[in-house]
Amino acid sequence: MGRHIKGPLDQFNVTELIGLKFDILGKFYLAITNISLYLALVLVVIVSIFYFGDNDSKLVPNKWSIVLETFFASLKGMVKDQIGLAYEVYLPLIFSIFFFFLTGNLISNIPYSFAANASAVVSIGYSLTFLLGVTIISLFKHGNKFFRNFIPEGTPLALVPLLVAIEFTSYTARGFSLGVRMFANLFSGHCLLAILSVFGNQLLSVS
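^ F-ATPase protein 6, sequence as received from the core. Prediction below:
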């Protein structure tokens, strides 16, 4: 992996590792990049953490189990306060998403590793996928009542098309805004660390 990254800011460059061509539906090209490699690494790390943190067969919890239970209890309290009585349905998904982001961000802090979550494509892909999932769940749960969110109560009939367009744009823009916000925060943070490290190295070499 190190041969693909020569500088601190190279961890944001997408590099193709393996390319495969298939004669399916014309020309189909599948490329395995450093993004997919590090996302797979994140998945392996998470599975390993939960494997060693499995404490069902032991009476005294180990250190891994205590850490996982602490994270779970903290997140459970926040989710319960936000969602209410139905929090148990969504808690496993939210906990999985939280742990995936946390592990990915911690791995990206390793020098000369790849910051997968700092990629705009990955971050916006996450947010749009979650937005689509939330929309599907809302449609199944509320049915046609879901569309009432796009029409404020008491709206004149003449203004309905305009307000529906505005509310729909605002609703879909959340997917982009959340993805861009996570990408921008991670990217700016890594750039700041790179600048400070280079400046500190030069300052120490001069002194």
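The longest strand covers residues 16-22.
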